[in-house]
Q: What sequence folds into this?
């Protein structure tokens, strides 16, 4: 059984999968409290569903891509087994995890998007740099930035760990409504930093406080 906050179909709003149809499985519960969190409704609210119930709902939507998100999906020990079941049946599965929980046990077929927290999130000290060692080259590392000090910190993490040499997709995203995308682009271009700047396109389709998808 997993405690699920919601299951819905939408488009991917972030990552290199942005714009693609996707079924989202949002698990309840999170071990962090980021200052810019836009899914705090998932901290506690959810209902217990069996793997069979979850898979049935996913099948009803008929979408190839499935993303596990939260909250923090790896807080629930049963999550990796359900992911393996979906991978075994032909789904392309993604997980967005916050970088504070070991990802070494995850199926190597899984597409990992690790949201590595910066100082202005209030949660940077909870990050596990060792998680970089468990990522595949095709996995993705995301930094959500609130100001220039966050950018400088993230740049130091990227350069110090040679992330752009080891991984194909290092992402930087301005916190919506907090940091100007133009400012972030200016910093990246000035430094010739080989990262992908991304915007949360779902927030430009739906209102920021509106549940997106169907």
A:
């Amino acid at each position: 059984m997993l405690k699920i906050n919601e299951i819905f179909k939408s488009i991917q709003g972030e990552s290199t999968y942005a714009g693609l149809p996707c079924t989202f499985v949002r698990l309840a519960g999170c071990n962090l409290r980021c200052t810019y969190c836009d899914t705090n409704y998932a901290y506690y609210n959810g209902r217990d569903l069996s793997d069979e119930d979850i898979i049935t709902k996913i099948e009803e939507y008929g979408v190839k891509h499935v993303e596990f998100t939260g909250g923090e999906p790896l807080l629930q020990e049963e999550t990796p087994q359900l992911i393996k079941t979906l991978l075994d049946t032909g789904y392309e599965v993604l997980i967005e995890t916050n970088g504070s929980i070991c990802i070494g046990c995850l199926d190597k077929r899984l597409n990992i998007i690790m949201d590595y927290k910066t100082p202005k999130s209030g949660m940077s000290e909870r990050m596990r740099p060792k998680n970089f060692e468990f990522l595949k080259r095709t996995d993705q590392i995301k930094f959500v930035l609130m100001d220039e000090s966050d950018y400088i910190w993230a740049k130091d993490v990227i350069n110090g760990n040679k992330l752009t040499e080891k991984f194909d997709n290092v992402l930087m995203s301005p916190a919506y409504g907090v940091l100007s995308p133009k400012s972030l682009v200016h910093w990246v271009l000035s430094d010739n930093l080989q990262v992908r700047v991304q915007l949360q396109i779902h927030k430009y389709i739906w209102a920021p406080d509106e549940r997106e998808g169907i």
Notes: The domain at 2-205 is CATH 3.20.20.70 (TIM Barrel). The helical segments are 51-61, 79-88, 148-160, 163-166, 181-191, 202-205. The chain has a mean pLDDT of 95.
